[in-house]
Amino acid sequence: MLQKLLILVLFLSSFFVRSQGLVWRTDINDAVTVSSEQRKPLLIFFTGQGVGQKFQNEIFATRDFEDWSRKNVVLVKLDLSDPTVSENIKEQTIRLKNAFGVEQIPQVCLTEVYLRKGRTSFNKLGLMTDNQLGVKSWIAECNSMLNKE
């Protein structure tokens, strides 16, 4: 009995560590640099205090999302209610939210980034909310936005 319990604990702890392996950037400038270096678009998650965990639990905490995101996007989490960020960062986050047309939170924006002559420009690919069809459907919708041509 103890062996079975130990095996279960080890299995679950390895899954927990694996699911926590995502790298969410919280500095848009850092994310832009990484996006440019890796030639990957940004997936910006706009969130705030009091926002339910459903989105994160049903989409971001899955192995499918982790595997997909590592290959396809640079993850950015911008918390509109984070008390630890400076006023400049809060203002920057609000400007980005407004520029991308984010009207509700939580919401995800997919965008390409271009750096030219010291200026950063964005090409918004689309906005995503939580869908009721699961992570595979959510990823498929993201892929259709990323592969528009």
Task: Give a structural overview.
- There is one protein chain.
- The protein has 149 residues and is of the alpha+beta class.
- The chain has one domain: Glutaredoxin.
- The protein is 48% helix and 21% strand.
- The chain has 6 helices and 4 strands.
- Strand 3 and strand 4 form a beta hairpin.
- The relative contact order is 0.17.
- The N terminus is likely disordered.
Counting H and I runs of at least 4 residues, what is the number of helices?
Answer: 6
State the assembly state of the protein chains: single chain
Query: Within the largest sheet, what's the order of strands?
Result: 2-1-3-4
Largest sheet: 4 strands, mixed
The tally of strands reads: 4
Helix content: 40-55%
* CATH uppermost class: Alpha Beta
- Global structural class: alpha+beta
DSSP strand content:
15-25%
Gross geometry: globular
Do you know the CATH topology? Glutaredoxin
**Count of spatially separate domains:** 1
Question: What's this, in brief?
Answer:
By secondary structure, this protein is of the alpha+beta class.
Short descriptors:
four-stranded mixed beta sheet, Glutaredoxin, alpha+beta, 149 residues, 6 helices, single chain, 4 strands, disordered N terminus
Helices and strands in order, then pairings?
Layout: H1 2-19, H2 28-38, E1 42-47, H3 54-60, H4 63-72, E2 74-79, H5 87-99, E3 107-116, E4 119-128, H6 135-146
Parallel strand pairs: 1-2
Antiparallel strand pairs: 1-3, 3-4
Protein name: Thioredoxin-related protein
Organism: Flavobacterium nitrogenifigens
